[in-house]
Every structure is written in C-alpha cells, then in structure tokens.
Amino acid sequence: MTAQNSATAPSAIAVGTPLPVVHRGPGSGVLLAGLGVLAFSLTFPSTVWGLESFGPWSLVALRTVLAALIAGCALLAGRVPVPERRHWAGLAVVAGGVVVGFPLLTSLALRTSTSAHAAVVVGLLPLTTALFSALRTGSRPPRAFWAAALAGAAVVIAFTVQQSGGALSGGDPYLFAALLVCAAGYTEGGRLAGVMPGWQVIGWALVLCLPLAVAGAAVALPHEPVHLTVHGVVGLVWVAVGSTFLGLYVWYRGMAEIGVPRASQLQLAQPLLTLVWSLLALGEEVSTAAPVAAVAVLVCIAVTQRAGSRGRRRPGAGEPVRS
To answer: Which of 101, 258, 289, 303 is the most buried (most CB within 10 A)?
Structure first.
C-alpha cells in the first residue's frame, strides 16, 4: 500500500491507469481494523449520551453534518479528485448503510433498548458482513473460517442476550434492519477501499450525505427538544468524529489490506467491549460470565484470522488488488 493507502494512486484512478502493487504484511491491516472496532465499540454508549441532549433524528443529522465537514476539508486540503462515475453507486451504498442507515436505526432503537441489548446486532454483524462479502465479491473463505465465525457469533449472541435478560425489546426491528444495511455498507466500502484510499471512501460518502444531513437538521431541530449537557455534547462529538470519520477510516483501510471477511470477524470482540464501556459510562451491569465469553471470542477470532489468511483467493482480471 502507498502512503495514500491504495494500490492505485489518485491520479491513476482519474485516468484509469493501474500502478504496480506495493505489498504490506497483514499485521498492519489487523491493527487498523482492530482500531476501527475499538472506535465502534464506543458508539452505542456515546449515542445514549447524545440522546440526553438531542432527539434521534437531530443527533444523526448533526453527527453527519460534523463528520461531512471534516471529511470535506480533508478532501479539499488533499486536492483529491472526484471519483469516477462508476464508483458513485458503491459510495451511495456506503452512505446509505453506515453514514445514515445504521446510525439512524440504532439511535431509534436505543430510545427503548439498553446499550448492552443493542450489542446483539453487533454480535451478528461479523457473520452477516462475511456473507454479504461472499455474495458481492466472490470471496470464498475455507470451511474452518465459517465454522469459527458461526461459533463466535453464537457465543456473542448467547452472552449478550443473557446479559440483557433474554427479552426482546421494541427497538429490535430497528436493530435487525440496522444489521442488514450496515453489512451492505461495510462490504461495499471494503471493496472500494481496494481501488481508492480508505479515508476517501468514507470521505466521499459523507460529502454525498451532506445536503441531506443539513436539510434533516433544519427540519428535526425545531421539532425535537434540545437540552445541552456535557454528556450530550461529548456523545455527539464522538459519534461524529470518532465513530463516523476516524473509525471508518481505519476500518476501511484495514479491510483493504486483509480483506472484508477477515476484518469483519474482528468485530466479534465489539459487543464485549461495548459492555465494558456501558458499565463504565452508563452504569449498566455486566455479567460475571464476561471473561469466559471474552476468551471464547478471542479463540474464534484467532481461528478466523488464521483460516482467512490461508483461504484468500487471488483477484481475477479487473478486480481490485488488496495489499
């Protein structure tokens, strides 16, 4: 990967001329994707904080506006050329899935669900993302990968459901819808990160959403109560800067280096991290079974990473090459 985090430089993207691939070891990709997971694990508790000050529609609109302004400034400062027309459909999927869809649906869910209960959707997200990737990109991880992915999902679901008392909530339809749109956005973003730098993927997706976000904020703010608190402002800033921009930047960059299936399985650790933040920031109770679940999840992650590294296929003609 170049300093631009792409096998194809921006100028080459503009004219369609491929450049030689610079290879990098998988360790950096795992680290980057892991940092993305760490950032995402704070999203639910930060959203709960943000909802102290803003309504769900206002919170999502404002987080998108802030993140889009940061992304737009970065793109302008870097004099990044506008992506080719053939990439805009994929960027629209990223925008609809991870910039608008997932934040809005989870914010609506968190009005009635606890942060711990909402972690159920994240427990299913790694497996769903791997399935979307297999369908979209033709990746074929080996059976050991799928077995470990299923086992990890089962552990996370069982633990998080037990932690939340095993009861369904009124926010569950929103959570399951969020699961689907986010998996689609992750998959498409991971694919695009093979042909342009990861920060540009999320940057252009955010810029694409800016007009809609500004309009949404103008409509939502007068109709939803605003009660500014320290928690509310900190929550808004984190979901805008940490989760939406920086988190997705390192996440897509890591995906480009190790592939969507392997990166997605690192998210098996996200619900457990979310439970820790929920305990520290929100005072929600965490079961004593957490250490056992954490060890089981780490074993599953190790297996998926080992199996995934062995099972990655060579890209075919015309496919992006991930270093």
So the answer is: 258
* 124-162 burial: b if 16+ Cβ within 10 Å, else e: bbbbbbbbbbbebbebebeeebbebbebbbebbbebbbe
Kindly report the backbone phi and psi dihedral angles of residue 193, in degrees, each rounded to the nearest multiple of 5, phi listed first: -70, -10
The whole-angstrom separation of Cα 151 and Cα 143 is 12
pLDDT tens per residue, range 139-162: 777 888 888 888 888 887 787 777
Where do we find the tokens 């080719």?
84
For residue 269, give the DSSP letter: G
Which residue type is seen at 137? T
Q: What is residue 94's DSSP assignment?
A: H
Q: Could you tell me which of 118, 101, 142, 113 has the C-alpha nearest to residue 42?
A: 118
Distances (CA, A) of 101 to 59, 94, 106, 183, 210: 13, 9, 8, 11, 14
Residues of the chain below pLDDT 50: 1-23, 313-323
Report the distance separating Cα 14 and Cα 85, nearest Å: 10
Residue-wise pLDDT for 47-99, tens only, equals: 999 999 999 999 999 999 999 999 999 999 999 999 999 999 999 999 999 99
Q: What is the pLDDT of residue 257?
A: 86
The model carries a pTM of 0.75
Sign of CA dihedral 103, 164, 51, 230: negative
**Token digits of residue 152:** 């990890």
Instruction: Give SS3 for 2.
Output: coil
Intra-chain end-to-end CA distance of the chain, in Å: 6
* Number of separate helices (H) and strands (E) present in the chain: 15, 0
Residue pointed to by tokens 């920031």:
281
